[in-house]
Amino acid sequence: MKRILILVLCLAFLWTILPMEIKAESSSPPEGSCISPSLSIEVSNITEREATLSFTANTDGTIYYLLQEAGAKTPEETALLTGATLSLTADIESAVPLEGLIPQTDYSVYALFNDSMEGQSAMGTTAFATQTATLAKGTVLPMASSPNDYIFDISEGPITINKADGAGMLTVSYGNPTQTTAPFANSQYITITGTSTSNGIKIDELLKTGTNIILKDVNIDQSSNNESAFNMNGANVNLTLIGTNSLKSGIKRAGLGAPDGSTLIIDGSGSLEATGKDFGAGIGGGLRQNGGTIKVTGGTIIATGGIEAAGIGGGDGGSGGSAVITGGSVKASGGSHDIQGIPTNGETNGSLLLRLAEFELSGCPQGTQISDLTITGAPYYGTKDFFVDSKSKLYLWLPAEASALCAKISEDEYYNIPVVFSTNAEKPEIFSLTPSGTGAALSGDLVITFNMQMRSGAGTVFLNGSALTGGVWDENLTVFTIPYSGLPYSKACVIKVSGFKNFWGDVMDDDEGHSFFTKAAPVSFPAVTTDPAISEITDSEATISGRVTSDGGATVSERGFVFSTTANPRINGLGVT
After folding, report:
1. CA atoms of 527 and 545, how far apart (whole Å)
2. Which of 327, 331, 263, 413 lies closest to 73, judged by CA?
3. How far apart are CA 286 and CA 350, in angstroms?
């Protein structure tokens, strides 16, 4: 049986939607049938919290449909097959009520139709928006949180997502006084919205199987409370951005806490500004915390770290963790690093080292949405639905060979966009090199420590004019170790280091300012011989001759003979001359 995925494009914020029809494209109808399947979708009776969704098909079949907030990630076909279903009879309208909607909110409906006539398939989406809530004077609004719809408002109290009994199950605690949902599957998307200067989001560190969170126009500012706006505590989170979001934490804490052990994947069409106060990263670790695994596949991200902390990475005293960027606009800045640890494009894209590339779209006002961007050299890069900043710029992380061809903004297109890769004003230098001084081994390792992170491809190390081979980097790409061997004793050795590049591709100046001496040969007793021993013997005289056959590894400073009337004479011994 063939499937038809119905996607009908409509304008958001219309209070009514006209019925629309899509027919499957087919060069010829299925054998035994003259009917090309088609489906009509209508959304009507739209209020603040309710609507009616209607389907009409020209053939019998089954419709699978899914309702979600506009801007969320387009569901896969497998997700639709697990959604709600409705049986359709040819030419008879079937309607379903939509309840528990949020006022003044954009929604998308996705449908997958299986007809009984073996038709071809077509794709699209239909969208609608609920009305603005109108209240009589003195009316009290109900809580914005809607736990049955997995929607929680941070303004009502702290939100904590906990692991529950059972594989892949979790609960959400919310509100004040605190309420807790019944356990539900972690595949369910949890939407968090609202504004607060006193409440934060916390994730149970035991949630290693992951949880799906949507931030929708969230604004949390805990900078005056020295608390975390959002702390993952080592959990795994898929984070989707809708609208404009801001997370600001207090001193020693990351704006979005994703410390060592956490895996954070950020996507969506919205934006996020994450700000850590003193010693906390923008996204990553707090004071003395390493950063976790941070992956960005979409969205507009501004991550600002505090004193001695990274924009994305570790807090003061912590290391960087892992950063993978395959989409979105990411502007990171911090007191110690912008992004601590070298960002890559991930194993599936070749693990290429990335570099910040600034794209300027002259004349675009801040907040202008980019609907599409064509990039050569990085076809994998997620480039839809992000926004330029106050300088009309996008901040993409790309391999060195990438460049942009075209950007689309509504109906306008920009061609031949200038791409400015970031440069590091400071060239890499050698911080230390061992061995140095005297007494070096005849064989061993040269250990070269650089003053910044380097590219994994090595330059060249010369020892007395000959290039050494081999060599390995440490995990932080700051220490390079290369072996040498076969040097003679007491040898003066000069080292030249050339051609090494830092992460941004800046090449070091040749360095010939390091040298060492190998150790002296070990010293032993000299060897002598007295052959021929004695000649020209008279009654009172004789001639003694001898020869030094080995100096024992040191200069002979004194020579002479010792003789006695007894065997084995010793210097200054009794009867010894």
Report:
1. 15
2. 327
3. 31
The residue type of 123 is M
Question: How many helices (H) and strands (E) would you count in the chain?
Answer: 1, 51
Separation of alpha carbons 51 and 16, rounded Å: 10
Look-up of token digits 């934490």: 249
81 DSSP assignment: H
Beta pairing partners, 344: 324, 353
Structure tokens at 3: 């499937």
**Residue 33, both tokens:** 């049938």
Amino acid at 126: T
The whole-angstrom distance between residue 329's C-alpha and the CA centroid of its chain comes to 13
> What CA–CA distances, in Å, run from 164 to 188, 206, 407, 506?
14, 10, 45, 50
Sequence-distant contacts of 133-141: CB under 8 A, at least 24 apart = 133/48, 133/103, 133/104, 134/48
Neighbours of 381 (CB within 10 A): 23
Total Cβ atoms within 10 A of residue 149: 12
Distance between first and last Cα of the chain: 119
Q: Virtual CA dihedral for 246, 254, 338, 192, nearest 10 degrees?
A: -30
Q: In this structure, which amino acid lies at residue 562?
A: V
Place of tokens 């609202």: 194
Higher pLDDT, 309 or 40: 309
Phi, psi for 15 (deg, rounded to 5): -80, -20
For 497, the enclosing helix (H) or strand (E) is: strand 492-498
* pTM of the model as a whole: 0.59
Beta strands 201-203 and 293-296: pairing type?
unpaired
CA pair distance 398, 421, nearest whole angstrom: 9
Residue type, 239: L
In Å, what is the CA distance from 522 to each residue of 157, 511, 515, 518, 554?
A: 77, 32, 22, 12, 9
Note the pLDDT tens digit of each residue in 527-563: 888 765 677 888 878 888 888 888 777 778 787 777 7
